[in-house]
Amino acid sequence: MRLSQETQHLLASIEDRKDIDWMDIIGDLQTDLIKTFLGEDATHDEIQYGLSILRSAHQIYADDKEFHNLSLYVRHNRAKRGNLRVGDPAFDIDLLNMNGESVSLLSHCNPNRPLLILAGSYT
């Protein structure tokens, strides 16, 4: 569905628009897919649960080799498994706080407490 000519044409038609983003189109496509699978009478919670499973399937089925052999297209997916492992020392890097000021990552850390860094990007 995502790679269909119709969807790709729709995505191309909105590239320069500011009022809608490709994620809106894909979100609608995924929601329609879940509704088709569950039925039009599916509740909001059922649809949200289905979307959660769909969007996190590669993490949920991380050890399933057959699943990972399926063809999957992820727009601009540049994610990769890095060399960091649990227990490695954290790198001290400069970050921007909510006020746009530069702050040190490790300045917010307590050496006697575990550190967990979660990062992501909406863009």
General description of the model:
The protein is mainly alpha-helical. The chain has a domain at about 5-70. It contains 5 helices and 2 strands; from the N terminus they run αααααββ. Strands 1-2 form a two-stranded antiparallel ribbon. A hairpin with a 5-residue loop joins strand 1 (about 95) and strand 2. Helix 2 crosses helix 3 (about 45-55). It is extended and about 50 Å long. The mean pLDDT is about 80.
The percent range for strand residues is under 5%
Kindly name the structural category.
mainly alpha
The biggest beta sheet, please?
A: 2 strands, antiparallel
Q: Termini separation (Å)? A: 22 Å
Number of helices: 5
Outline the low-pLDDT stretches.
none
- Give the strand order of the largest sheet, numbering strands 1, 2, ... along the chain: 1-2
Shape: extended
Give me some keywords for this one.
37% helix, extended, 2 strands, two-stranded antiparallel ribbon, 123 residues, mainly alpha
Write a brief caption for the model.
With about 120 residues, this protein is mainly α.
Topology diagram in text:
Elements: H1 5-13, H2 22-38, H3 44-55, H4 57-60, H5 65-68, E1 94-96, E2 102-104
Helix pairs in contact: 2-3
